[in-house]
């Protein structure tokens, strides 16, 4: 026979563990017949997770539907209504019928539907006889078929459920009417499909070996057009595999119930055989939530023969997995099957039975190996026989989450009273490799900002920090990549930072500009909409003055182009531009934000305007070094009348706009003739055209105060980073409100490092926790904020 033997349709009892066995099965998703898709629903599994439930256990609060995680299921099949072979009618006098028509069933269906889970009913006929007048042959007579179809659809509709599962288990045989059970069963399924209402779901349970040659009871290719899914009963293979290589046992011997590989009938082979005949999207691989145990001669042999008449039983997962807590158990030893490497087998001495006992079952490790094969082969999903054998066992649900869904929950308060805040991520019981987080600034309509993945290495939760601007609303989305490689769907949450929220830092925002135009927050809210070039074109950046600084501003490129960042976007009016000439070096805004001035490499100063504003007055007097690339930085006095230009050697040169006097000369400053060593300049906000002071930063990180005649010298910087002989310092930024006598701030190095400094007697500003950094790559250009 090219199939696995069906499980014994019987009730086997071990202590408090009762198992009603039949390789009955479940349904799967399929696009045919307009079936409503449940796979991939918001918060649901990425594949079909289908489970059977035994009628007698449906309402048991310890193992029935009340104990399940419906968020990890897509379909549940009620197992099941039985077919009377004599006339094709459904049996109306057993437990399954009574529970089906009870409030327990109604409550279960309501719960499943409220959670987006499909419910179907299994119609069952089991007879492997090859007699021409067998029950299977009788049930498949055309008139009896129609009775079964009519009543099954009536029962489906009466219960308000979503489909039918066909669990006919038999052998190919020629019936008294001259037709084979194979052909009649195929015709039965085709007729059932044609009469089922549109949008309802049809699954057929088949043997694991049916697709090996497709010549037995189940015509896999003939059934495929009619079904939404094949529930492949990839369990009970231990009976068939006992007599096959590599074991060749003379009678039943212990071995995996659903081996992943190696044995004659195994999940890997089954997947390959089915997907060679039908689409992978129609294949569900059924897995067992039960095991076998019995007395054996010793505790050293994996594939022992059970000792006859010594309580050889089939036991539920819940009972098999808790052997260490059961009475009479000593010398317990755990193992993995030596042939396929996954299935668990255990041995112990059992004083209750006065023998050495052995058991085989699929624990979460073994189930995970099969789940991985389902994912790797892109099958419809997994089937579970049966959910009530596992109940609420947390490890089973966690493994399903890890392989088929890793739903993230975001714990984010709706409002924030401080600009730096945290929120929690949780994936329930899923084992997470990493969380992905992206942020959208709804106020600026910027994002999504992709955050570095949060590696948690198998944990189930994480805490994430976020910075926000006062008054802004943010939307956060997150998803999880499980340790099994399953990527969950995005989930969303929003929060608003109060307009009066306390600032977490002594600034509203602080940022680094890299040479390509990238903006990188330093313990600050996220900003975007910046330009970006494939070469190091960025030369300078400044925030637009005003109450919302530094939320928007401009980035200067090497050719003089001015490009907005942040929001709302700035519209540049008239501006200088020098195509293909790397000549632009710096710029400065007017305090009104209506425009400003650009500095070129030779010292030329060029006005620009924003929006419809007129150009600012042209410069009247300014330093100029024709043909010499020495101009570095430009500053502007608060009244817009002029300012100072810093050259590469440390020289500080006054400049003025038309109609305004030239600012006072700088009397004291550092100067290094012929050495390209000056990197940045800070002009005290209190400077005027008659009194000016500030600091110059050299390439090694040194600070040099400057001041005009009659102006007090700025305090010496007492604590700062310094790299003698290393041209690494790139920019400086002073804290809001800094004065020459009370100054502190940060120095930016070429790799992106941000280093605090302070004048003598002043405390250092706080260390920066998060910022852009590129070890060994000299690409950091500027540090700015407000």
Q: How can the largest sheet be summarized?
A: 8 strands, parallel, barrel
Question: Based on DSSP secondary structure assignment, what is the total number of beta strands?
Answer: 45
Distance between the termini: 79 Å
Low-confidence stretches: 1-36
The strand line-up of the biggest sheet is 3-4-5-6-7-8-9-15
Q: Beta fraction of the residues?
A: 25-35%
Count of DSSP-assigned helices: 12
| Percent helix range | 10-25%
Structural class assignment: mainly beta
Query: What's the alpha carbon Rg, rounded to whole Å?
Result: 38 Å
> What does the overall shape look like?
elongated
Provide mean pLDDT, rounded. 93
Summarize the structure.
The protein is mainly beta and 786 residues long. It contains twelve helices and 45 strands. Helix 4 runs parallel beside helix 5 (181-195) and helix 10 (364-376) runs parallel beside helix 12.
